[in-house]
Specification:
eight-stranded mixed sheet, Severin, single chain, Rossmann fold, alpha/beta, Beta-sandwich_Sec23_24, Znf_Sec23_Sec24, Sec23/Sec24 trunk domain-containing protein, zinc ion binding, SNARE binding, 24 helices
């Protein structure tokens, strides 16, 4: 970027005057300096070592920020990749918890991906330990009272034949094969050889006593729409081509694949035709779409990809040719989905990838036009004020039509089948431009079964092709568990009070346990604890939480993952605030809001009151000596008002300015969002890449070293991050905006022609404006600015770790996308919501009124 400084300075002077750039919008002045309010901006420290900073779980008090690069070493307590608390100092009494108003909650991501420099989770097999008397295999040792599994914090008594449970403080007898004499320090002699006694997270290969059915390798079923719309929008050809390239890379033995297509009927393809050579390259048509069934044995329709990948690829290639001249417009998508569930159940469970291009309008589960009349009207109301950013009174009403779903009886019956068989459903909705596809209905089965709902609004190959391919790839290769059973156990003083997530507790009165057909590495859920009275508070003791998840792995093993977390308890209110994690607290607030919307309950007043109560408590108990008129924010929670202001501007909660399907997609993403996704999704990161008329001082401070190598692997320096406001976007610049789901690149109309030529291969801005937005591409060329920009884009993606692919989209001036871009800037007033500075003032008034 800096090597163009001379040409930029010469072009900045026109007629003896220095030209100044214009911001995208101008906001009215306020009494408070916007640059003085807290926000997560500034220079991003580069990674200083491969894998980032190292954290030992027995040493850190506060875990590293969830969206940073780090390596965790498990020293007995579960790593923060799997468990994160809203506060790392648990209030020891219910009175203290009530005074703080900070909800004590755990965000769990039980199958999260490990960092590249972290050791794998130990796999244990207790069945190999034989009882010396009976000769039978040993079950995983656990407490006879609370059923907690043995972990590093349990003690040993009676010479090693009994164990003291750290959760319920009960002594229980160990299996004879597991008992062992203690050393002089009352520790087991085989301590270093027992990962379950030194690691906070372990996997256990469970015996048949834990089986409800024999575990099998989950199959993959692709269900693809082949109607006229799906063919003409190239959804069929692209999905078939993508899957052809992906199935060739699956070499895990035992992973089977099946293919189903549908239009007004449902079609099956014999992929394992070695026993039936006459059926080779044939297609079986199932016309009964009211009572769908599988028309052939499951063994005929499923092929082992490690042996038949070429056969599967050839069949996928034939699908595009077979339907390229179709004129069928009706879709029996839900009939095909029900048949796919039956096929998965016959094979013992699996993962269904279903692609919709239109609404299923015939067959079982069809969504009729009469059902959608009210929804379409609500969708029009949601879009009609798009672009209106004027203030109006905020409403606490929830759109009860938009977030409800149709065909409830059908989906309830289908979910029961998925739950029984361990079947997860991932939905890929690819509607044609300006089409409404009722994402709330189609995605509901995906949310409940642990799949992933995907929406590609106004689908086009140029815009969404790579994104769809990457999502299909991640759905196939992400770490996942099937037929999952989850149980949260707590030590004395804590009780599970509420579960936030798309899951239903096994017992309505006990939210600590639930079942789910599928959970993958991108799934997170939250439990809120209630602090119970204790007879005696000992601050030297820890609070213990153990999460156990029983699941079938992708290679057909029935595993039990046990994660044990130890965290200090305190009687000091100041310590509760000091060790509060604002990212996790916001994540809990976000899930609470999403839960209210799905239940069609108001949420705004509840969350505003929670924010005011937390800040009032800190002001009253921890900062009483400061000036009465000041708004005092604890260091750990200084960004909480910003997150609160941004929450109400998310697409899911805005009454106007977003399409109905996009609002639903935003809401469904929130209820399963991991902690590492929340910061950028809440407060988008704004990076300046270039400013034509910037002074040398501004250039050096903001993006002078951007794109230069740091010397650590392939990492490069990132530009400074600016306040997420449209006032920071200037017409002479290029800016990168990370919203966690999309990387937007804004190109201002006053960019330097020489810079445009090196970055995008055009000599003037008008050439960009003449192209469709999706046709503007960043193609890195060695030695040119485009290569440096590409390095920055790749670094932003790399810092997200195992995050799903984030597409890059380019926005130019005066295009429709520029108006959509305004809804990204969460510090600005937006529709019914006030600006961040005004929100902070309003929150200050609420806190002040409580003090008075």
């Amino acid at each position: 970027f800096t090597r163009q400084a001379d040409s930029v300075r010469s072009s900045a002077a026109v007629g003896g005057e220095i030209r100044r750039s214009q911001p995208l919008i101008r906001l009215p002045p306020t009494r408070i300096d916007p640059d003085q309010v807290p926000r997560p901006t500034g220079y991003t420290d580069p990674v200083e070592a491969p894998g980032g900073k190292r954290f030992d779980t027995d040493k850190y008090v506060m875990p590293p920020a969830a969206d940073t690069v780090y390596t965790v070493v498990d020293r007995g307590s579960a790593a923060c990749r799997f468990h994160r608390l809203t506060t790392s100092q648990i209030p020891a009494t219910p009175q203290l918890a009530a005074s703080a108003h900070v909800p004590v909650a755990l965000m769990a991501q039980p199958l999260a991906d490990l960092g590249p420099y972290e050791p794998p989770i130990p796999l244990l097999d207790f069945s190999r330990m034989r009882d010396p008397v009976t000769g039978e295999g040993t079950l995983p040792p656990r407490c006879s009272r609370c059923k907690a599994y043995v972990n590093p914090f349990m003690g040993w008594v009676a010479g090693g034949s009994e164990c003291f449970c750290n959760l319920c403080e009960h002594c229980f007898e160990l299996p004879r094969a597991y008992a062992l004499a203690l050393d002089a320090f009352s520790k087991r002699r085989d301590l270093n050889d027992r990962p379950e006694l030194t690691r906070g997270t372990v996997d256990i290969l469970v015996p048949k006593d834990y089986w409800t059915k024999a575990p099998t390798t989950p199959i993959v079923v692709l269900v693809m729409e082949v109607t006229y719309v799906a063919v003409t929008t190239k959804v069929v050809s692209h999905v078939a081509k993508s899957m052809r390239s992906l199935v060739r890379t699956i070499n895990t033995p035992g992973v089977e694949f099946a293919l189903i297509t549908y239009d007004s009927t449902v079609h099956f393809y014999p992929l394992n035709d070695s026993k039936y050579p006459r059926l080779r390259e044939s297609m079986l048509v199932m016309p009964d779409i009211q009572s769908p069934f599988v028309p052939a044995p499951a063994e005929l329709l499923c092929a082992d990809l490690s042996q038949s990948s070429k056969r599967v690829a050839k069949t996928l290639e034939s699908v595009g040719k077979r339907f390229e001249k179709t004129n069928v417009t009706h879709s029996a998508g839900n009939a095909a989905l029900e048949a796919a569930v039956e096929l998965c159940n016959a094979k013992g469970g699996g993962h269904i990838l279903i692609v919709y291009a239109t609404l299923p309008d015939v067959g079982v589960g069809a969504i009729e036009a009469s059902e959608l009349a009210a929804v379409r009207q609500s969708a029009l109301e949601s879009e009609k004020d798009k672009g209106d950013r004027e203030r109006s009174p905020a409403s606490d009403e929830v759109d009860k039509t938009l977030f409800s779903f149709r065909q409830e009886a059908f989906y309830r019956r289908l979910f029961a089948k998925c739950q029984e068989g361990g079947v997860g459903v991932s939905v890929f909705c690819c509607p044609q431009p300006f089409a409404f596809i009722d994402f709330a209905t189609l995605a509901e089965i995906s949310v409940k079964t642990g799949g992933r709902p995907h929406l590609y609004s106004d689908f086009s190959m140029a815009k969404d092709g790579e994104h769809l391919f990457r999502d299909l790839e991640r759905s196939l290769f992400v770490q996942a568990g099937y037929d999952c059973q989850v149980k949260i156990r707590t030590g004395k003083g804590l009780f599970v009070d509420k579960l936030y997530g798309p899951y239903t507790p096994s017992n309505p009165s006990d939210p600590s346990q639930f079942n789910c057909p599928r959970i993958d590495a991108d799934h997170a859920f939250t439990v809120v604890f209630r602090v119970a009275p204790q007879q005696r508070v000992d601050e030297s003791k820890n609070a213990f939480i153990q999460c156990a998840i029983l699941f079938t792995s992708c290679i057909g093993q029935r595993l039990l993952r046990v994660m044990t977390l130890a965290t200090p308890m305190t009687t000091s209110l100041s310590l509760v605030f000091r060790y509060t994690d604002s990212d996790i607290l916001y994540n809990v607030m976000q899930r609470r809001a999403a839960d209210c919307v799905r239940a069609r309950r108001p949420f705004r007043k509840e969350l505003m009151n929670l924010l005011a109560e937390i800040l009032h408590s800190y002001r009253l108990h921890c900062s009483s000596t400061t000036t009465a008129g000041q708004l005092i924010l604890p260091e750990s929670l200084k960004l909480l008002p910003l997150f609160g202001s941004s929450l109400f501007k998310q697409a899911a909660f805005r009454p106007h300015g977003a399409r109905a399907d996009e609002r639903v997609a935003s809401l469904l993403r929130m209820i399963r969002m991991p902690a590492s996704w929340s910061p950028a999704a809440t407060y988008p990161r704004l990076y300046p890449l270039y400013k034509r008329f910037a002074t040398s001082r501004t250039r050096d401070r903001e993006f002078g070293i951007a794109g230069l190598w740091t010397g650590i692997l392939d990492n490069v320096h990132l530009p400074i991050t600016l306040a997420c406001s449209a006032e920071k976007i200037t017409t002479d610049g290029c800016f990168l905006i990370d919203t966690d789901t999309v990387l937007w690149m804004y190109l201002g109309p006053e960019l330097d022609p020489e810079w445009l030529r090196e970055a995008f291969g055009v000599s003037e801005y008008a050439q960009l404006d003449m192209r469709a937005t999706e046709d503007v591409k960043l193609i890195p060329e060695e030695g040119k600015i485009s290569e440096v920009i590409w390095r920055v884009v790749e670094q932003v993606r790399r810092d997200k770790g195992s995050h799903p692919h984030v597409p890059l989209r380019i926005c130019t001036h005066s295009k429709v996308e520029e108006n959509n871009l305004l809804y990204i800037f969460v510090e600005d007033p937006m529709g019914q919501e006030m600006s961040y500075v005004d929100f902070l003032c309003m929150l200050h008034r609420q806190v002040q009124s409580k003090i008075e």
